[in-house]
Amino acid sequence: MTVVAIDSRDSTPIYAQLDRALRAAIAAGRLNPGDQLPTVRQLAVDLKVNANTVARVYADLERAGILETRRGVGSFIRATAAEARPPDEHQRRLRAFVTRVLADASAAGFTPHELVQHISSHGKEGA
What we know:
Number of domains: 2
Shape: elongated
CATH class of the largest domain: Mainly Alpha
Structural class: mainly alpha
CATH architecture of the largest domain: Orthogonal Bundle
Number of helices: 6
Distance between the termini: 51 Å
């Protein structure tokens, strides 16, 4: 069983797809702290990619604290779902949220200035 998949039609580099797929599997709970990953060689064979690519992703995820490699034993998930999210995920989600709010406000006839004023005064009321 392969823990992740790579899309050969996607223009995203294989390295980035694999990093994103592993993080997503952890964030979605398909991989949990303590779970053992396939060996570099096995995952490379399963995905039909270069083993050096898999090794690089594993090493980068280990440096990021997502994985833990035990010499002679294998690589294991170390991070929780929240910790596995890409570093820019929060900012990306916030930008998308703000875009949706501004679009909804505009459709309802509110200006961005009115929206900011109301949010600002609302925040002061709750403080």
